[in-house]
Amino acid sequence: MPSPLEELPDAPQHVHATEVSLRWGDLDAAGHVNNSRFFTYFEAARVDWLATTLDGPLFTESGPVVAHATCDFKQPLTYPATLTIDVCAPPPDNSSLRNVYDAVLKRSGERVATGTAVLVWVSVDTGETVPVPDLGLR
């Protein structure tokens, strides 16, 4: 199964990995993880990466907002399980940054979902776009 990284025109780099343990409350009536939860898993990995990369907290002066997000579901996911969410990113544009997420089962390495997000950096004071801070991707 091809990786979503192959779809990126620029050379992305792996920037972070986060483990996410499923919770019973993540399940829908059919006993599968609800599709909306994957966006939360991707968010957890993204916030974890930014928290370990940036010098200070987000949104004191500026921070990222999600302008676009996608998720492709590869197979149903049931409880219990632990996922590894890999975050990759090509170099940012001036005020936007694309992330690619790869969610795999920790135990078997099977891919369960892939996703993307476009983040736009904005000023807390004005709401206007500002340059993406140095994330080591340039």
CATH class: Alpha Beta
SSE order: EHEEEE
* pLDDT < 50 stretches: none
Number of structural units classed as domains:
1
- Do you know the CATH topology? Thiol Ester Dehydrase, Chain A
Any idea what the CATH architecture is? Roll
Number of helices: 1
What is the CA-based Rg, rounded? 16 Å
State the fourth-level CATH superfamily.
Answer: Hotdog Thioesterase
> How would you characterize the largest beta sheet?
5 strands, antiparallel
Largest beta sheet: strand ordering = 1-3-4-5-2
Report strand %: 35-45%
The tally of beta strands, per DSSP, is 5
What average pLDDT do the residues reach?
91
Essential attributes:
single chain; 138 residues; mainly beta; Thiol Ester Dehydrase, Chain A; five-stranded antiparallel sheet; 1 helix
Please explain how this structure is put together:
- The chain has 138 residues and is mostly beta strands.
- It has one domain: Thiol Ester Dehydrase, Chain A (Roll), CATH 3.10.129.10.
- It has one helix and five strands; from the N terminus they run E-H-E-E-E-E.
- The protein has a five-stranded antiparallel sheet, with helices on one face.
- Strand 4 and strand 5 (111-123) form a beta hairpin.
Task: Record the SSE blueprint.
Elements (H helix, E strand, L loop, with lengths): L12 E9 L15 H17 L8 E12 L8 E8 L6 E10 L5 E13 L15
Antiparallel strand pairs: 1-3, 2-5, 3-4, 4-5
Quick take:
With about 140 residues, the protein is mainly β. It contains one helix and five strands; from the N terminus they run E-H-E-E-E-E. Strands 1-3-4-5-2 form a five-stranded antiparallel β-sheet, covered by helices on one side.
